[in-house]
Design goal:
This protein has seven helices and no strands. By secondary structure, it is mainly α. The N and C termini lie far apart (53 Å).
C-alpha cells in the first residue's frame, strides 16, 4: 500500500535527480506531481518556487508562503521568501523574512550545541562481564 506522502516525496527525489541531470522541464513535472499528490509537501513547494523564481518571482512567493506555512521553522523557506521579496522591491517584508531565517538558524545552532554538550557528559552504559567467581560456581 502506497501512502500519498511517500509518493510525493519520491516525486521530489525524482525532481532533484532531474535537476542534477540539467533537465528542468522534467524536474518541474515531478514537482508538480508531488504538489498535486500532497499540497503540503515542503520540498515540492520549495522546488516549484526555485524553478519559478528567475522568470516569475510573484509565483515563487506563492509557493514559498505555502512552504513557510507548512513548516514555520524552515529557515531556508524564510530566506528564499525574503530573497523573492527583495526581487520585487518589497523591502519591509524582505527584511522580516531574512531576519526570521537568521533567528531560526541561530536558535537551531544553539539547540544543537546544547544537545551535543549534554550528550558529551552522559556516559554510555557499559557492559560489565559477570564476576569470574560467579561463572565458576555455576558450573
Amino acid at each position: 500500500m502506497t501512502v500519498e506522502g511517500d509518493t510525493a516525496r519520491t516525486e521530489c527525489e525524482l525532481a532533484d535527480i532531474a535537476l542534477l541531470q540539467s533537465a528542468p522541464e522534467q524536474a518541474l513535472a515531478h514537482y508538480q506531481r508531488a504538489y498535486h499528490l500532497n499540497p503540503n509537501e515542503v520540498q515540492a513547494q520549495m522546488g516549484l518556487a526555485a524553478l519559478a523564481m528567475p522568470e516569475n518571482p510573484q509565483q515563487a512567493i506563492k509557493y514559498l508562503r505555502l512552504a513557510v506555512q507548512s513548516d514555520p521553522l524552515n529557515a531556508s523557506a524564510h530566506y528564499q521568501l525574503g530573497r523573492a521579496y527583495q526581487r520585487l522591491q518589497m523591502t519591509e517584508l524582505a527584511k522580516k523574512e531574512l531576519h526570521l531565517s537568521q533567528e531560526i538558524r541561530k536558535t537551531k545552532d544553539q539547540v544543537q550545541a546544547l544537545y551535543h554538550q549534554m550528550n558529551r557528559y552522559t556516559k554510555p552504559e557499559t557492559y560489565e562481564a559477570p564476576n569470574q567467581e560467579i561463572l565458576e560456581t555455576n558450573r
